[in-house]
Every structure is written in structure tokens, then in C-alpha cells.
């Protein structure tokens, strides 16, 4: 009798094992169609609550899912590799198996979205893009720029130019603060590398000035191959104490007035003094005027040696460089005024 009962237990266990092995490798959904749904697990959710949510999304048996999650967790712990289920929003494909679901939840394989911040944007444009980004928790929307910088441990630092333009991946329902933290940390690293690698005769006092110069180079460069010579022109003018006379700084200093003038600079704007008007003030403006990419940082730190003190747009994105004012005036007549 005991022997019969023992063999019965073995048979039941064997059948259960076979069923479990089959079940964990079978699709959770039986719709027969290619469907992707979403499963959101809140922080602090229990295994039972997670199984219940997964059951509602997939239609799978909640008890079986709970038993599987518990068994998988115990098995992982037995091998010293306990893996808790992570909070997040997950894509649940129609062919996803219980085994695949478990791996997805414990590895944190969340739905990821991407936001691209282009080089040359202002911080105002960056904030608008982040505020409009889908599936972000907009925790910073009510903060001023100053409050945001305090929250990022950058109290007293101007926000403009302090964030690296790039494409940033973020988990669905993540806080927008995560993007700001990534961007400001990346800029810090890139800026320090550029400062450490600068040519020793570059007339800049600190990395903040390098960032400001790089932002001007970023806005003035139409053709990438001209970038390092444009940097050389500005460095030459700084060394000689000449006015930089760069329109992008004037535009930045104009603020909303530039848009009100339909994107036009008037002659009066060049003589109207602002802290950013490099036609009325020598040296660099008080801070960056745009978000700066790696190439502009590199150009500011290692400008091309050149005799040029001037450059003008040719109309095709490239620039015409001149060493003397007479050469520059001739280039302006040719490329701007259309005179030969």
C-alpha cells in the first residue's frame, strides 16, 4: 500500500513536471493574432499582485502565474541569483511565454522611448521638447530654470548650454528629471575632456569660457569642415582684443524681439547694447548661447591655426575666410551683396 502510494506520488510529480515544462514554454495568449499589449508594474508590487495584473493583460491563469513566479524566484535564490521583479512598463507580445515574461520582468526589459535634442538648440527649446515628450512624468514642468539647476546640484549655474545635445532613451513613465540628469552629466564629462585636451595658447581662463566659445562656434558653423577654422578666427580675435562681432550672440541677446522682427536683425540691433552683443562689447558674452555638441567643444579647445580674422557665409553653407579687412569687404560684396 505504501509502495503504491509512493509510486502514485512519483507519477503525479512527473506529470506535474511535464506540464510545468510544457506550460512555461507555451504562449500566454491564445488569440492567434499578433498583438502587443502593455503591462505596468508599480514599485512595491507583490508577486501575487504582479501575477494578477499579468493575468488580466494576458488572460493566463493567475494562480499558475503566481506559482511560476514564486518557483522561479526560489530556484534563482537557491543558486544565489535571486532576481526580484522590477517596476516598469513592459511590452507583452502575443507569443510571449511564462518563461519569457519572467525573464522580461526580472531583467527590467521595459518599453523604451527616445528623445532627440539637436545641437544648437537653446535650453528653452530643450525644455519645450521634454515637456512635450510622450509617456514622461513631467516632474519639472512647474520649475523655473533656476529651480531646476538647484535640483540638479548646480545652484548658481546658468542652465543655457549646460546640457549635452543627444538622443536619450527613457523608460515609459520615467521622470523627465532622468533626461536632465543624463544630459547635464554627459556635458560635464565632455566639457572636462575638451578642457583637459585644449591647446595651451587658447586664450580662455576656464572651462566655462570654453563652453561659451563652443556655443558660438556651434551657431556659426554651416559646413562641418569649416568648424575648426571658424574657431581659429574667434581665437585670433580674442588674442588681439578685437570685437567678436558674431550675429548669433546678438540674436540671443535680443530674446523674443528677434521673433517679433520675423527673424531679422536690423542695423540698430547691432548697436543696441546687451550683455550678449559682441558688436558693442569685447571678449566673450557672459555665458553660452546654445547647446553644444562634441565637435564644437573640440574645435574650441583645438582651433585650426589660421591667419584669418574674418569669415562670411558663401550661401551654400560654407564660409569664406579672410586675413584682412579689405579681403573681407570684397568677400561680403561677392557673397552677400552679389557684386563682383
Q: What does this protein look like?
A:
By secondary structure, the protein is mainly α. It folds into 3 domains: 22-107, 2-Layer Sandwich (Dna Ligase, domain 1); 112-189, no CATH class; 199-335, no CATH class. 48% of the residues lie in helices and 10% in strands. The chain has 14 helices and 8 strands. It has helices at residues 2-23, 47-58, 62-78, 98-107, 123-132, 145-151, 177-196, 207-220, 227-240, 247-254, 256-260, 267-271, 294-301, 325-335, and strands spanning 36-41, 88-93, 112-116, 136-137, 167-171, 174-175, 310-313, 319-322. The chain has a two-stranded antiparallel ribbon. It has a two-stranded antiparallel ribbon with strand order 3-5. The protein is elongated, with a radius of gyration of 30 Å. The N and C termini lie far apart (113 Å). The model is unreliable at 5-9 and 11-16 (pLDDT under 50).
Question: How would the blueprint of this fold be written?
Answer:
Blueprint: H1 2-23, E1 36-41, H2 47-58, H3 62-78, E2 88-93, H4 98-107, E3 112-116, H5 123-132, E4 136-137, H6 145-151, E5 167-171, E6 174-175, H7 177-196, H8 207-220, H9 227-240, H10 247-254, H11 256-260, H12 267-271, H13 294-301, E7 310-313, E8 319-322, H14 325-335
Parallel strand pairs: 4-6
Antiparallel strand pairs: 1-2, 3-5, 7-8
Helix pairs in contact: 2-3, 7-13, 8-9, 8-13, 9-13
Radius of gyration from the CA trace? Answer: 30 Å
Count up the domains: 3
Distance between the termini: 113 Å
Give the number of helices.
14
Strand order of the largest sheet: 1-2
Poorly predicted tracts of residues = 5-9, 11-16
